[in-house]
Design goal:
S04_transporter_CS, 14 strands, two-stranded antiparallel ribbon, about 10% strand, alpha/beta, Transcription Regulator spoIIAA, 6-stranded mixed sheet, 28 helices
């Protein structure tokens, strides 16, 4: 074999050329002459012992994998990173405080539990997480899912007790008992979520996130935003006073927060830190509420009691566990999906990698241990993560700084936020949902780019709105899996042709430069061949190539009958007729047909020979203009036993009508599958496989033009 690359030479604008001269290869030649497998001398027992053998390097690798902070903390550049991380942590805490209070309302628990959830899990994630930029804590969608379970397991109707101040049969609502029960539900659910995520991480189930495609996640979060809006209407419209109109008062907050958010987005490159609109609204509204005693004089719903200090750890009430298992799986998967999607975005931007399995472990530990301190399930927040990254955060030190600020509020100044109106928290939630509602812009984009992904987006949104977030998510995942099956059942198929003087082969219907070789069809399908699509592969092959073995067999049988009829005519007995005329004997040779008896011997012979020659010529014509079919397996990644049987059937059926079938560009792993499936036999050898389409084309041309080559071909 000779290979040569010709440079540009004196003409710098000329194209570089590649010339290769080598023999025509098939798989049999590659296996016997060119490629030799490496011998694996180790036994299974040796490999197993090596896998479980403990060495210092393996122990170090395990420690670094399970405790990712050990990879960056020992070499942490204090002078370069510390100031940026502190500023980022302070900025994130300013956003995390009001969001923690607000999202606790979505979880149907008192606001202080949002502060707990903004402290314990953040500390744990800083040591076990692999992302340096995500901000872990409360998140609207997860909080809403938890709140739905809490309200379902502890509905208001359970907590109406007979009134002690009335003689009639009236009842009053026990708010304290209701809140305590819902906290227990949220805590137990969080414990189960943590266990599921941790076990999934140990089992290396990080790949499950691939089934939550971006359109599915965006449609789901948009539907969740609708649920959040509906859940907050009672707080937005809940001010019971003529002087302070609920809708108008909250509109002022919403407008202010929206303007601040727009300014932060538009001038984020010029602002050293984002404008803390949320904390400004919280401080101002808390001061106004306290100064005017809105709760006492105008019955405005406020945050109320925020206990000072941390609560002692407590064991969750596991008797509530059985009814929450489906909900826990949904929360665990959605929480992980949101976390890993954000982590990958920041990792790609800043040039490091994240481990999906370790992220599952980190979230699992954060939720599991946090639940013993009355936290509810957490994940990464997009808005806070953007703040943490845009303000210069370099590592999870910024997350630790933010958690320290939250801790100071819990142990020292939490009581300050007791007069905070709940309408302000609802406004904070609503404004933070704007980014989710902007996802409706995906619809026209997906309409232009991918109809299947548009169906996933819309179906996920509708199902999640109508069925609820838990059942909507299950329906969306099922639909996503069905689209995978649909794609394999509807692959793109084409007939390839060669581009002259290139050795390249492209779709003849798509490119005018591509043209077919006479008598050769090159069939390409961009899918693997297995039980679900093997029949489709065979039918599409016949449709695209225009060569149907069954029809050709029928034509072959008709020709065979015609040949037998011709032979019968040739071998039919002749009679000699003698007539006597004027004492002379005249002999005539007559066929059995009486109609032919009227002609002369010479005329009859000429007519008979002409018909026989015509019939033989018709019989000798090929059944099809196509003498070879090449199956392009460039994109075939695997084949199963059903697919292998289908290919065998294709080769046999086409061989029966004198059409050879060969296979080109099959990768080594698929060939290994065929070996394991015992695909090859004496009549079906590796000679049918070629490393490139061009090798297969040259083989078919040579075999068709050379009778000896065709006779020696291994089929």
């Amino acid at each position: 074999m000779e290979a040569e690359e010709a440079g540009a030479g004196e003409d710098a604008g000329s194209q570089r050329m590649c010339r290769i001269e080598r023999p025509l290869y098939d798989e049999a030649f590659l296996r016997t002459q060119l490629l030799h497998r490496r011998e694996n001398t180790t036994t299974f027992r040796q490999r197993l012992a090596e896998k479980f053998r403990c060495t210092s390097s393996k122990a170090k690798a395990v420690a670094l994998t399970f405790l990712p902070f050990l990879t960056w903390l020992p070499s942490y550049p204090v002078k370069q990173y510390l100031f940026s991380d502190v500023v980022s942590g302070l900025s994130t805490a300013v956003v995390q405080l009001p969001q923690g209070l607000a999202y606790a309302m979505l979880a149907a628990v008192p606001p202080v539990y949002g502060l707990y959830s903004s402290f314990y899990p953040v500390v744990l994630y800083a040591f076990f997480g692999t992302s340096r930029h995500v901000s872990v804590g409360t998140f609207a969608v997860i909080s809403l899912m938890i709140g739905g379970v809490a309200v379902r397991e502890a509905p208001d109707t359970m907590f109406f007790v007979p009134s002690t101040n009335s003689s009639n049969n009236s009842s009053e609502f026990d708010l304290v008992a209701c809140e305590n029960r819902r906290v227990q539900v949220a805590v137990v659910l969080t414990t189960l979520v943590g266990i599921i995520q941790f076990v999934f991480g140990l089992l290396r189930f990080g790949f499950v996130a691939i089934y939550l495609t971006e359109p599915l996640v965006r449609g789901f979060t948009t539907a969740a935003a609708v649920h959040v809006v509906v859940s907050q209407l009672k707080y937005l419209l809940g001010v019971k006073t003529k002087r302070f109109s609920g809708p108008l008062s909250v509109i002022f907050c919403i407008v202010f927060l929206y303007v601040v958010k727009v300014l932060n987005e538009r001038y984020k490159k010029k602002l050293p830190v984002p404008i803390p609109g949320e904390i400004i609204v919280v401080i101002v509204s808390t001061g106004v509420s306290y100064g005017m005693s809105l709760n006492k004089h105008y019955q405005v719903d406020v945050v109320n009691t925020i206990p000072t200090g941390l609560r002692p750890p407590a064991i969750p009430d596991f008797s509530l566990l059985p009814s929450m298992i489906p909900d826990a799986f949904a929360v665990a998967i959605v929480g992980f999906s949101m976390d890993i999607s954000l982590a990958k975005i920041f990792a790609l931007k800043h040039g490091y990698s994240v481990d999906g399995n370790q992220e599952l472990i980190a979230l699992g530990l954060s939720n599991f241990f946090g639940s013993f301190f009355q936290t509810f399930a957490v994940t990464s927040s997009m808005s806070r993560s953007l703040v943490q990254e845009s303000t210069g955060g370099k590592t999870q030190i910024s997350g630790l700084v933010a958690s320290i600020i939250v801790l100071l509020v819990i142990v020292a100044i939490g009581f300050v936020f007791e007069p905070l109106p709940q309408t302000v928290l609802a406004a904070i939630i609503m404004v933070n949902l704007l980014g989710m509602f902007r996802q409706f812009r995906d619809i026209p984009t997906l309409w232009r780019t991918s109809k299947i992904e548009l169906v996933i987006w819309l179906a996920t949104f509708v199902a999640s709105v109508l069925l609820g977030l838990d059942y909507g998510l299950l329906a969306a995942i099922a639909l996503a899996l069905l689209t995978v099956i649909y794609r394999t059942q509807s692959p793109k198929t084409s007939i390839l042709g060669h581009v002259p003087n290139t050795g390249l082969y492209y779709d003849v219907d798509e490119y005018e430069e591509a043209s077919e070789y006479e008598g050769i069809k090159i069939f390409s399908s961009n899918s693997s061949i297995y039980f679900a699509n093997s029949d489709l592969y065979m039918n599409t092959l016949m449709e695209k190539t225009g060569v149907n073995p069954e029809k050709l067999k029928a034509a072959q049988k008709a020709r065979k009958k015609q040949k037998e009829k011709t032979k019968k005519k040739e071998s039919s007995p002749l009679t000699v007729a003698a007539t006597y005329k004027d004492e002379a004997v005249i002999h005539e040779v007559l066929p059995q047909s009486d109609e032919a008896g009227e002609g002369l011997n010479g005329q009859l012979e000429d007519k008979h020979n002409s018909e026989t020659t015509s019939e033989v010529a018709v019989f000798l014509e090929p059944l099809s203009d196509v003498h070879s079919i090449i199956l392009d397996w460039t994109t075939t990644s695997f084949i199963d036993s059903v697919g292998a049987k289908a290919i065998k059937q294709i080769i046999r059926e086409y061989a029966a009508v004198d059409v050879r079938v060969v296979i080109a560009s099959c990768n080594r792993s698929t060939l290994a599958d065929l070996d394991r499936l015992q695909f090859f036999s004496e009549n079906l050898t590796p000679h049918l496989f070629f490393p490139t389409i061009h090798d297969a084309v040259l083989h078919c041309q040579h075999a068709n033009s050379s009778p000896a080559g065709a006779a020696n071909e291994h089929t």
